[in-house]
Amino acid sequence: MSCDSPKMEVLSTEEVLANAKNFNAFLSIAPSGDIVIYSPNPELGQNIKTSFPMVVAEELDADWSKVRVLQANLDTDKFERQLTGGSGAMPHSWERLRKAGATAKYLLVAAAAKKWEVSADELNTSEGIIYHKASGKKIGYGEVANDAALLTAPDEIPLKDKKDFKIIGTPVKNVENGAIFTGEPLFGLDFYREGMLHAMIQRAPFGMKIKSIDDAAAKNVDGVKDVITFENSVAVVGTSTWPLMKAKKLLNVEYEPEGKVESSADHDEIFKDLLVNGKAEVKREDGNVNAAFKNAAQVVSAEYQCPFLSHSPMEPMNFFAHVQADKVELVGPTQTPERARSTAAEISGIAPENITVEITRLGGGFGRRLSADYVAEAVHVSKMMNAPVKLTWSREDDLTGGAYRPAVRYRFEAALDADGNMTGYKLRGVGMNAGNSTREHNFPAGAVDNLLIENVNYESSITTNAWRAPITNFLAYAEQSFLDEVALAAKKDPVDFRLELMEKAKANPVGGELQYNVDRMIGVTKVAAEKSNWGKNPNVKQGFSVYFSHRTYVAQVADIEMENGTPTLKKIHVITDCGMVVNPTGANHQVRGGVVDGMGHAMYGNLTFEGGLPTQTNFDKYRLIRMKEVPAVDTYYVDSGFDPTGLGEPCLPPTGGAIANAIFSATERRLRSQPFIDQKEFQDLNLGIKRA
Amino acid sequence: MALINLKINGKAHSVDVEEDTPLLWVLRDHLGLVGTKYSCGIAQCGACTVHRNGEAMFSCITPAASLTEDEITTIEGLSENGDHPVQKAWAEVDVAQCGYCQAGQIMNASAFLEKNPKPSMEEIDEAMNRNICRCGTYHKIREAVAMAANSK
């Protein structure tokens, strides 16, 4: 649009939708030329709400300035995999989204061709306008939208050549910025319905059940309507939040043991025991580890441990439910709206087709909102109170409410021959409700002739849930730090040591086909070494880490410089191969966000338990990383020619290892446990952090 | 319960709440101003930051009853059209991921720049350290505060 064009009247989204023609689940076009694109997946900051529409708009050849994006409600007829998790949205929907845009464009062009009585292949499109070069005619999408919607498209529609992309690959701002920066109601906690009740819940410590309830004082608080009990929970219900926070503190609930009531000291004993005596499930076995270790010139072994962690999204858990006689209305932040619906169906007895789920913007997810526990609670209370109810968790509720990242202890062992080649590799993981605490087919599997990966799972009463980059969020650190220990024993440079293993896996994969693309892994490793000037600057002590998770390959180098005798972490280089980058701004956010997340939890995050409850109940004791504690993070993307893969999780796993390895490089202190700040080896290090 | 008179974003309000009700909950539950967020409730995270007579203040621990003589500004009242220099910088730099902490970040930054219009990067880090961002947008926040400072 030129600067001289007349100021167009800006239509409201309601006005646009009222007149828009619907082309498919994702896309509607109004006669005004305004376009509405529906984003189906829950938005939690990964900015799928911008990148999904970008893909549709690209193939549509839309004018992005005319695009409005709306969050779709749950609709399993219209959308597949309407969830947010596993960094899977983009790879899963890439083709589907492109086809949706391309098909609509096909129909628009066909309509114009029909109108002008020319052949469609004489027409071309650009930014929402159809051109007929030969006659000089042009027409906007809006003017042919109604006609186009009456036509049928063939099943096979050609998609754009990637080199012709005009929107994908360019930095596009978050479509929700305006609303976010002016405080508009966006999040679940911001949802209010006239006449609704508020609820908050007192939950039992892990392994305990309610013995008795004294709710007299709680009921007496002005603003409290009722105190009700269901399952192992006591709910205070009232007219606003503050009275309920006070009432909860006045609740006198006695608990008694029902299962294991655990403390961190117990966990320590359990780990010690199970690492030696636990009944292990063999996850992978190659060659003959016993022989390899028997004949080894050197054996390196180490144990690594990580604590339970909370997800701690900034928006605490909350949900709105209105259970009625014949339907249920659900509104709130969920990463799994379909699970929210089936949970509500089970509790209310109402069929799923009579349950609606409006997905609000999520104030962070990190995997916490994959669980529907808080949805169930809201539904229970609404049903019992026979009223619309908004359930709020306090921060204390959130930190003590379970669904944690599991605590895990690993024992690694490596056998080296006289030339420093790793001939044997053993890993036993003992996890607390971790499921499989290993990723047995990931590197270094395939690179080691004799390998044994085992898993022991302990059923703790403490509940766990997927936490950003499940298992790999800690395993990657432990493994990459251990590989540095082995490289040191082998007297090899850490990067060279890994490249040798990767080349070996490439030339002669052990145990069948590799389940990772070793070329891409070598690719990010080499670029990381190059971009970070690996080993070139004697004043910069560096640590390397590389990991494959969620379809994406990431290598990191952390730079520590000595400043006045103090080791100072100044920069982390992140080399990412996530296939094509859809939105560079969004991508940088996920890379930096993943690194900051990985670093913050490696350094500070800790939940310790006493009597079935965490000791850390709010951000005064549960430490999250802050502005002053973040080094520079340089991002670089390797263009390997693949279609887009995910970025929500993969940049987190390598972070702890890169930092720990750099700390060793600078101080010769090996950190084998998280959080780093609690380790004996860290106490007097005085690690500074300063953005380069 | 008591009738508490407040001046918020230039408008007079009268709310009937318990005397100990923090301003945060008056804003959210009683006045429909949900831009100011709850996250920790103990003045550790900054999501609840508002301006009290132009100064950044944690609304989660300050009883509304203590603010009857003060001018309170919330994110909704920071500008007419979302065009405060800090908001504009936030948009230019594309700061947000989930966005939940950003109102508090913007309120802290705007109060800070009012007092310290030409801060050093270290001073920016120091001032903004009050606000937690769980998504890790710190690099962008820093860039946006610096941009807002340079734009005035």
Automatic annotation (TrEMBL), chain B:
Start and end of every 2Fe-2S ferredoxin-type domain?
2-78
Q: Which UniProt keywords apply?
A: 2Fe-2S, Iron, Iron-sulfur, Metal-binding, Oxidoreductase
What InterPro entries does the entry give? 2Fe-2S-bd (IPR002888), 2Fe-2S-bd_dom_sf (IPR036884), 2Fe-2S_ferredoxin-like_sf (IPR036010), 2Fe-2S_ferredoxin-type (IPR001041), 2Fe2S_fd_BS (IPR006058), Beta-grasp_dom_sf (IPR012675), Diverse_Oxidoreductases (IPR051452)
Is Oxidoreductase given among the entry's keywords? yes
List the Gene Ontology MF annotations in alphabetical order. Answer: 2 iron, 2 sulfur cluster binding; metal ion binding; oxidoreductase activity
SUPFAM superfamilies found in the cross-reference section: 2Fe-2S ferredoxin-like (SSF54292), CO dehydrogenase ISP C-domain like (SSF47741)
Q: Which Pfam families match?
A: Fer2, Fer2_2
Which PANTHER family does the record cross-reference, listed alphabetically?
Answer: BLR6218 PROTEIN (PTHR44379:SF2), OXIDOREDUCTASE WITH IRON-SULFUR SUBUNIT (PTHR44379)
Q: What is this protein called?
A: (2Fe-2S)-binding protein
| Origin species | Algoriphagus aquimarinus
